Amino acid sequence: MTTATTTRQTVGTPMTRVDGLDKVTGAATYAYEFPTPDVGYVWPVQATIARGRVTEVDGAPALARPGVLAVLDSGNAPRLNTEAQAGPDLFVLQSPEVAYHGQIVAAVVATSLEAAREGAAAVRVSYEQEPHDVVLRFDDERAQVAETVTDGSPGFVEHGDAEGALAAAPVRTEAMYTTPVEHTSPMEPHATIAAWDEDRLTLYNADQGPFMSSQLLAAVFGLDQGAVEVVAEYIGGGFGSKGIPRSPAVLAALAAKHLGRPVKIALTRQQMFQLIPYRAPTIQRIRLGAERDGRLTAIDHEVVQQRSAMAEFADQTGSSTRVMYAAPNIRTTVKTAPLDVLTPAWFRAPGHTPGMFALESAMDELATELEIDPVELRIRNDTGVDPDSGKPFSSRGLVACLREGAARFDWALRDPKPGIRREGRWLVGTGVASAHHPDYVFPSSATARAEADGTFTVRVGAVDIGTGGRTALTQLAADALGIPVERLRLEIGRASLGPAPFAGGSLGTASWGWAVDKACRALLAELDTYGGAVPDGGLEVRADTTEDVELRASFSRHSFGAHFAQVRVDTDTGEIRVDRMLGVFAAGRIVNPKTARSQFVGAMTMGLSMALLEIGEVDPVFGDFANHDFAGYHVAANADVPKLEALWLDEQDDNPNPVRGKGIGELGIVGAAAAVTNAFHHATGQRVRDLPIRVERSREALRAARAEAQKRGPGAAEQGKPVG
Amino acid sequence: MKEFAYARAGDAAEAAALMAERPDATYLGGGTNLVDLMKLGVAGPGLLVDVSRLPYDRIEHRDDGSVLIGATVRNGDLAGDPGVRERFPLLAQALLAGASGQLRTVATVGGNLLQRTRCVYFQDVSKPCNKREPGSGCPAIGGAHRDLAVLGTSDHCVASHPSDMAVALVALDAVAHLRSVDGTTRTVPVAELYRLPGDTPHRETVLGHGDLVTAVELPPPPGGAAMRYRKVRDRWSYAFALVSVAASVAVADDGTLADVRIALGGVAPRPWRARIAEERMRGGRPDEETLREAARAELEQARPLPDNAFKVDLATDLIVAVIRDLVARKDRA
């Protein structure tokens, strides 16, 4: 313990992760690792059809194997409260209906993992199969406008008259864009230990929101609120997939209840692709209308994405388009088509990520059409008020980010002409795109306690999914208390620590931090009444920010940024290399520059990966994903990630929240893919509107570029030749 | 639990005896592919005969310029061997283009040659596959086949061989040394080690039960040759080849191609020696037109499917690019 008498502020300094040593030495305990005596192991039996019903589960061959304790199916599994407000994907083994390939249709519990796995392989399941449809189509007649999308707004929003304005616009662009299924792929696969104590359930769970998960599970199991403890001390990444408990967690709790002993489950990587939700694929049409000076007069953004036949889920794919640019006529439509698939769910910056790929590609197309610099085009369309709500922004740093990024990226030296920069066998180009994410804050509670030994304990139902949240909260609490971090003990990662939102929507640090700050300051005030001396038994204060959040002034709250990328394309093969990426962000105060940089750089890498690599290959015949491991589903490897820089601007935000920061986790991915694909266009002169740009699409583009050059005649054959 | 026996052989004779006893026995090298397949339920040997510690772990550079590479030499060690790097750079390049550092440290030369296709249907026991279950059908032909073969395929199987190393070995005319269970030895050119699928895609090599790869022999490199292994894949490391080219070129004083050897990876059920292209190039001038015409002639035999048709043109372009660059000595080691 330090004896320093002066305490320096830690917020804003690059404090090394407080849990880094525990993680790299293995001392940090992840969900699967909690010692549990007499634990059973459950292994799911998964549907090999995509639609129909189970007619028979023959568990006898499994039960005959050594170590097998039970075979569960929809006939003998404990009943859930299927009236609960929860996605039907969670009502595991409650009916023989099969709604998607890979669905849990039975499960084997055994005394060892191996016995459970072998037992599951021995279970014989018979089906009555029905035809399935797993392919998303723009013209799917079943597609309906979503009543609400995941941010709570309607699927259809129109301001002005987009159709009329488009018809009257001097300049118009129209194009279709597609994004594929993307899998969240956290390093730690989903894992759960479930243990019952009469009507109380404890779940050690790979979980982004222990408190909210405990409420959801209480409802699903028909228990009293507060009867479920969820422990999520360390999480190896979630990216939305651990935002709520998924079907394997429910299965573990069902199996534990059935057997009357604790049960654990950990998914294989292959099962992650089959049982854990993914980012819905999208087909998007964007039409822009503009004056010749580049000012937008109309934006029409129409999205068709998939839901499951079981349940609605509609990413907020049109929501960025509603606030980005100052067009008087904006229409956004998000439709969902019901398919025989696992219901999709959140994946880093849900909706905004695919939506901004389309919008920022379209802006680049408009810039090309108008021969206006794409940075300048975005600046010309900046807006002081939110075009959707009409409210002023609490702060909006888009233009500042674009300008700062352009200066640092030597954008002024850029020749706007596409397809002309050649270095050896490579064509080289640069691209830009805007970044955006809403700035959410949810109410939270926290407890601060002064201990008799001069230390302090702060408790908040937060969770650190690998982002650095534990470190940021440590800094915020220590600063609020005016103590060095060594005198602070921070406890997070349990539902029983009190109401708190999940680590999702980039709202964690701002939401939990506000409650932590409030509790700490209230504790100091309370201590003052004791003359600064800690009474016997310590002193504890609880704070809740529900009212504070409600009483915030009415602003439109968002964070913004700008991505710049340089790519090169091999003219022999179509291979694409990203040379460098720069992201500049305005997200209020940055609590910890070190962990913030990791967040931004990580998100930008995911954007690069989305642009060039990631695709869940839908198998129409079997109804599943043909590629379901990391040999077939490619995420960026180190060798793919170039010189990658992230920086942020000082931003004062009109916000009563003492954290004074906006969310940063998701901002870094939004727009990143478009910066890469816009750079590809600048390099080759050809636009690829379907992600990812793998080598076959790149080669198609190069072929089209050569064909165009030939059509222009011998004089135009300069295309692709060295310049300067 | 699915049980299997494990035995570590002290020498080749012991390994052979173990194999002879059990028709369900399989040799285990580094295990980087076989163990995965066992986990997936694709392979289920009753006995693993671990040959990874047999005394075949040396790389012998002989006076005549040939090299004898023991079958248990690890991929990483082979890639790092100074003599190999200097005289057979395309082999070192191919090895380093494969897998990851961790896998290369474990994987053996013998095991690399005998690794199985990464076809997603072969690896998924809930799906039909003629290679895994003869006669059950090939869903890849109408399904996910983007990564699979365009040359040497049949109506029964379009699987591609995943090795990088084997492609380099085939270009270098390497010969595999084999030892049978009865102790007799024989040699087979690596190019002839593999069968094409035909209507028996489950029979992948010419090896009989218990045949053990003990070494791979490289003949002396062609004089004055420049060599290169170039691999096109979805990302810049740790991905299988979409198309790869291993090539060795020697240019005569008059500028014609005196010696040219080309093998293709990622496009066929085996490392594909492009003899037609070589034939057309040999003795000719290495101008773009000649190279392209030769490469096209090789790929004329291709039977592309909708999602892997791009490999035909890509292989053609890659052959041209690699030979062109080698002639310009840009890639000379």
TrEMBL record, chain B:
One of the record's GO molecular function terms: oxidoreductase activity
InterPro entries: CO_DH_flav_C, CO_DH_flav_C_dom_sf, Diverse_Substr_Oxidored, FAD-bd_PCMH, FAD-bd_PCMH-like_sf, FAD-bd_PCMH_sub1, FAD-bd_PCMH_sub2, Mopterin_DH_FAD-bd
Listed SMART domains: CO_deh_flav_C
Signal peptide coordinates: none
Domain FAD-binding PCMH-type per the UniProt entry, residue ranges: 1-223
Pfam families according to UniProt: CO_deh_flav_C (PF03450), FAD_binding_5 (PF00941)
Tagged with keyword Transcription regulation: no
Keywords per UniProt: Oxidoreductase
Superkingdom assignment: Bacteria
Keyword Oxidoreductase attributed: yes
Name of the protein in question: Xanthine dehydrogenase FAD-binding subunit
Naturally occurring in which organism (per UniProt): Streptomyces himastatinicus ATCC 53653
